Amino acid sequence: MPAGTAPPLRGEAWLVLQTAADPLALVGADVTKRVPDARVIATEECDGMRPGLFILVVKPGSSARTRDAYVRRCIAQPYSATGRGIPSVDPSFAALRARPVNFDGKDIVTFIRANLLVRPYYVDLANDPREGLRVAVEDMIDGRRRPIERDCNAPEVMRGVDHIAIACAVEQIAGQPVYRTVIYRASDLSRVREIPRCRDPQFFRVDLLRCWTQTVSAMGKVTLKPRYVTF
Fold first, then answer.
1. In which element (H, E) is residue 196 found?
2. CB 231 within 8 A of CB 223
3. Which residues are CB-neighbours of 175 under 8 A, at least 6 positions away?
C-alpha cells in the first residue's frame, strides 16, 4: 500500500502539465506512461492559486515535455496534505486502467482533518466489486504517520483530547450507508470501544462521545437519533 510521502512542497516551483476539475482525468496508466514522475496537487491547498482545481505537476527540469506547460509556485498551506509532502491523489492510482463506474474524482482525494490523514488508494484486483478503491486513515500527530484503519469506506473522523474516533460505512441498506464507529486511544491506537450502526462521532468531554445511531425500519428506511457514549 504505497504511502506516497515526499519532501514538503511549501514554496516550491512546479511545472504544470495539465489542469482539471476532476482528478480522475490526471491519473491512470496512460498518464503514468506519458509522465511517470508526475504527481497531482489540489490547488486549494496552495495559497494564491485558484481553488477547486487539480494540477498534474513535475519538478522543473524533468524530462516530461508538454507544449503548453508552465511554471507555478505552490505556497502550500502548512497543515494540508500538500504542505506535508503528500500528493493529493495517491500514486497507486497510476495503475488505474479504466475510468471507474462506482466512484468519482471526489472519492480519490487525500486530505487531512484533525491531524488525521484520510488517504484513498487503489488496489489492482480482478473482478473487485469496489473497483479497487480503498481508504486508509492514518494518525499524523507529531509529524509521524501511524496507520489506524487500512480499509475504511467513506470515513468520518474526529480527534479528542486523548482519543480518536473513526466511523466507517460497513454496509448499505436501501442505498444508504450504515456506519460503525470505533474509539481508539491516541497514545497507542488501541481499540477502546466499538459502536455499531452509529455515525458522525463528536467528542464532548475527555470520556464522552456523541454519535448518531442509525435505526433501520422494516421498509429499509434509516433514521438518526443522537447517542451519548462514555468510555
1. strand 191-196
2. no
3. none
Per residue in 6-36, pLDDT (tens digit) is 444 447 899 999 999 999 999 999 999 989 8
Give pLDDT, residue 2: 44
Per the listing, cell 514538503 goes with 8
Nearest to 16 by CA among 24, 5, 26, 8: 26
Positive or negative torsion for Cα 145, 149, 155, 157 = negative
**Across-strand partners of 137?**
118, 149
pTM of the model: 0.89
Which of 84, 96, 115 shows the shortest CA–CA distance to 3? 84
Q: How confident is the model over 147-188, as pLDDT tens digits?
A: 999 999 999 999 999 999 999 999 988 778 999 999 999 999
pLDDT at 197 over 80: yes
SS (H, E, C) 95-162: HCCCCCCCCCHHHHCCEEECCEEEEEEECCCCCCCCCCEEEEEEECHHHCCEEEECCCCCCEEEECCC
CA pair distance 63, 168, nearest whole angstrom: 42
CA neighbor of 4 nearest in space, from 79, 82, 70: 82
C-alpha cell read off for 169: 460505512
CA distances from 157 to 59, 86, 104, 225 (A): 33, 19, 21, 19
